[in-house]
Amino acid sequence: MYKAPRGTADILPEEQSYWRFAESRATDLCRLYGYQRLDTPAFEDFQLFTRSIGEGTDIVTKEMYTFEDRSGNVLALRPEGTAPVCRAYLEHGMDNLPQPVKLYYLAAIFRYERPQSGRYRQHYQFGFEAVGDSDPALDAEVIDMAWQFYSSLGLKNLFLLINSIGCKKCRPRYLDNLKIYYSDHLVGLCPDCKSRFEKNPLRLLDCKKSSCYGMAEKAPKSIDFLCRECLAHFQAVVGYLEALKLPFKLNHRLVRGLDYYTKTVFEIQPPGEAAQSALGGGGRYDDLIQELGGKPTPAIGFAAGLERVVLNLKKQKIVVPDLTATPVFIAHLGNEAKLEAMKLARTLRDNGIAAIMATGDRSLKGQLRLANSLCSNYAAIIGDNEVKSGVVTLRNMMTGEQETLAATALVKLLKEGT
Ligand code: AMP
User: Fold this and answer.
1) Which end of the chain is more exposed for a tag (fewer CB within 10 A), N or C?
2) Is the pLDDT of residue 87 over 60?
3) Within this chain, do residues 310 and 337 fall inside the same structural domain, yes or no?
């Protein structure tokens, strides 16, 4: 027997109402904030990701699904959504549109990670990006939009964490200080952090191991090393967030896992959980578009993991709209009746009424049992008598009451009832 590959999951019919709920809230939100949908391919030139996410990051060194196609092109399954949006922005000349260009996506993301609860090798993200504006008001608007996404789902008691990790002018001085601090503590670090110290010192701050946590808590803070421009930007963002009354907390250990971030970074976390269960995160990436060959173009974005959204909807016992239709069941006896049943199913569907016609060779009793287990409120029954008289017997499955009527009258009755 085949099984879904490790770290992937089927989204079964009974789960779909959670997913459609999350997606409909996401698309409503995008309409309200003026974002338009962009769909990009599931795979891209692998260099798009190595150049943007960063050579030393976990995603690039350990997690990308990279492969060579039959023509020798080296491609990678999309491990995140921002770089493809920036590639499309440049490829389609969106820099000529009024800025910022506001785009969103709902897409599968692929990362070869160690599977655990809420961590998959294929997961889905809802993300949005505002490209082409450096105004701190845009940072606040994006953070607000992310927060409103979770509020609109009814999720409660979430944490909104923010930080600023500076820009390429001020970050080197901060990293020097961070390395000086950590060089005195190297022996106590976990093996991963020892390598981070060399390759990606910023990530020392968000190690989840308890041995490293205490050290990160006392480490120098990026906020104390910001250049004048980054500090003014950060203060403006904070001012706007306060005006919007968003319940944010400054967290100096928040650095995010991708290299392209500059200035503002933020994350939304569920109640009472470890940091690896972040519900979503984002930040500014003012150098990325230029890095990918465009002119200097500031931008900011956010992405939410939808599996974790669904997990938290269930944990918080949020009732989502039930999307399953309760179809009219069409039972029949005899070959002629079966033909009439098919025609009736078509007529009902043409009138917007969900219908399921019995197939196979069940007895009438068996067909009605099936109608019951499909939760049909009505069964339309066609036998020899009905065929002869050109009518249908409608059975109310709750009460067992039956009445005989013509197909047109049946449509009218069912339409009134829906
Ligand atoms: P990131 O691009 O790593 O910040 O991811 C954005 C969001 O996607 C995270 O906050 C998570 O909610 C979700 N996410 C990231 N990686 C995974 C994964 N392997 N499985 C499920 N969700 C994930």
Assistant:
1) N
2) yes
3) no
